[in-house]
Design brief:
514 residues; alpha/beta; FAD/NAD(P)-binding domain; 3 domains; 7-stranded mixed β-sheet; 18% strand; globular
């Protein structure tokens, strides 16, 4: 079995370490931050300092696919999260469009949710239970290399105090990884990072209820308005978060750093009010900026650019946090690495890199590309809301059409949620036959919330649809012409400008992903 060094003791790093330790590998985790998690949930939330995870107190969400994989491969980790107050949530029943009883197959939409410090603490306990060594306050400064090889090969990690030898180094340090810098410092210049030019900024607050009950589901967990998106995510022990998401380059909306301005903006969306008029459990607005989609390629599809080191999770590919895919992709990624090690071991480093790279390209790269496309479309739509020129694109219109259909049809909602939760076979529902019942409603005028487009001749086409994909195609033109919900840009800015600012509370918790 191999000596494996995992960099980063966040959830992504620990779940990777757990999977590899199960295989009998000698796994050591190196963590820069010095402090282990406190024992109580309250202290974890209020006092635990984790500079290496600047988004520790922002919104986090584990997709249903993560729970499926974790229950199969890491059941002890799931138990630790639940014992700490993590809550099982069915992502169908939290949607206000859900109608009728749940079906047995709807169990697949269940996920487990908790605040990030609770998730991190549970992971640390799960690692300790199987004697995985986590070395804290270890600062890594570079990589140890074998000189003279055609393909550069890593043999360990250089820290401030020593060299930690390894048959394989697994970097799970996330968006702030120094791996690219370390590789270039030892002459590995062909490794390139592919990054989007623009991204998003998140402005988040957490709330709690004395009786542990959450407000009624008055809007979807992700709602796309004009100049901003809104996230509401249930968490552990009667808490939840609300995040307002803007373009990273939207200077006017940077005023959302102020508590009172943030509240004024949120209150412009009637359905958000029950969620933001509760008791906050944080002071100030938690801000995360510089969040762009990016990929670090260590394998070009023919040969590895470097061996002895791999990038897993956000170190390899950072996706738009709005979709909540990061930790789920990280677990899938770690499973790809485990399986590649089963097949090749570490003795043939080139074979390991190739097998791992091919699997990731086939299984995970499509998800990363989808996330990048979503970001590009949503940024363009936000641009259009500011300029007054609506954004239209066939791919984006189809996505919006499915979301529109899902407000009226439960099977469409199931299809939408399956896609969002990365469930296996999610796309199959789009080709399933559709009954006539939902079509009658779709061919009638829309409600005031989703007004009809005048003279829009799609009713007859919808009535002839035989599959859900047919309905989505027929509704695409209608969906792209619907006005975006929520206030206009001018109305939103006016509400923010007239609200008194909170002295001393603006920019209280701003961090950057760069």
């Amino acid at each position: 079995m191999a000596r494996i060094v995992v960099l980063g003791a966040g959830l992504g790093g620990i779940q990777t370490a757990l999977l590899l330790a199960q295989e009998g590998h000698d796994v050591t985790v190196l963590e820069r931050d010095p402090s282990p998690p406190p024992s109580s949930v309250e202290a974890q939330w209020s006092h635990w300092e984790r500079p290496g995870i600047p988004h520790l107190r922002l919104t986090h969400f584990l997709l249903a696919r993560w729970l499926q994989l974790a229950e199969t491969h890491l059941p002890a980790l799931v138990r630790e999260i639940e014992q700490a107050g993590g809550v099982r949530v069915n992502t169908l029943t939290t949607d206000p469009s859900m109608r009728g009883p749940l079906m047995p197959a709807d169990e697949r939409f269940v996920t487990l949710t908790a605040r990030r410090p609770v998730l991190e603490s549970a992971a640390v306990r799960a690692a300790a239970a199987v004697n995985i060594e986590v070395r804290r306050a270890v600062t890594c400064v570079g990589l140890a290399m074998v000189p003279g090889r055609t393909v550069p090969h890593v043999t360990g990690v250089v820290t401030r105090d020593a060299v930690v030898p390894a048959d394989l180094v697994v970097d799970c340090t996330g968006r702030r990884s120094h791996l690219l810098t370390w590789l270039r410092a030892v002459g590995v210049s062909q490794v390139q990072e592919e990054a989007a030019e623009r991204g998003f900024t998140y402005y988040t607050r957490h709330f709690g209820s004395p009786d542990g009950r959450l407000p009624e589901a008055t809007f979807r967990m992700l709602e796309q308005y004009g100049s901003l998106s809104a996230l509401r995510v249930p968490a552990d022990n009667g808490t939840w978060s609300v995040g307002l998401v803007t373009r990273g380059d939207d200077r006017e909306l940077r005023a959302l750093r102020d508590e009172a301005t943030w509240t004024a903006a949120a209150r412009q969306f009637t359905e958000l009010r029950p969620w933001v008029e509760a008791q906050p459990i944080t002071t100030g607005i938690q801000v995360m900026a510089g969040l762009k989609d990016r990929v670090l390629n260590l394998y070009d599809g023919r040969s590895p650019r470097v061996t002895g080191v791999v990038a897993v999770g956000d170190t390899w590919a950072s996706t738009n946090p709005t979709l909540g895919r990061g930790l789920t992709i990280a677990l899938e990624h770690a499973l790809c690495l485990r399986d590649a090690l089963r097949e090749t071991g570490t003795d043939d480093a080139t074979a390991l890199a190739g097998r791992f790279g091919d699997t990731v390209r086939d299984r995970l790269m499509p998800l990363v590309r989808q996330s990048a496309a979503y970001s590009a479309h949503r940024l363009a739509e936000m641009d259009g809301h500011e300029t007054g020129v609506p954004y239209r694109h066939p791919e984006w219109s189809a996505q919006k059409a499915l979301a529109l259909f899902s407000r009226d049809d439960t099977d469409a909602l199931r299809a939408l949620r399956a896609i969002a939760q990365l469930l296996p076979g999610a796309g199959e529902a789009l080709s399933a036959p559709i009954t006539a019942a939902p079509l009658a409603h779709l061919t009638s005028p829309r409600t005031a919330q989703r007004p009809a487009v005048p003279n829009q001749p799609c009713g007859g086409v919808v009535a002839k649809a035989s599959t859900m994909a047919d309905v989505v195609a027929a509704l695409a033109l209608r969906a792209e012409r619907l006005p975006l919900p929520g206030p206009s840009r001018s109305e939103l800015l006016a509400a923010m400008d007239t609200w008194p600012r909170t002295e001393g509370r603006s920019n209280a918790a701003a961090t950057s992903a760069s």
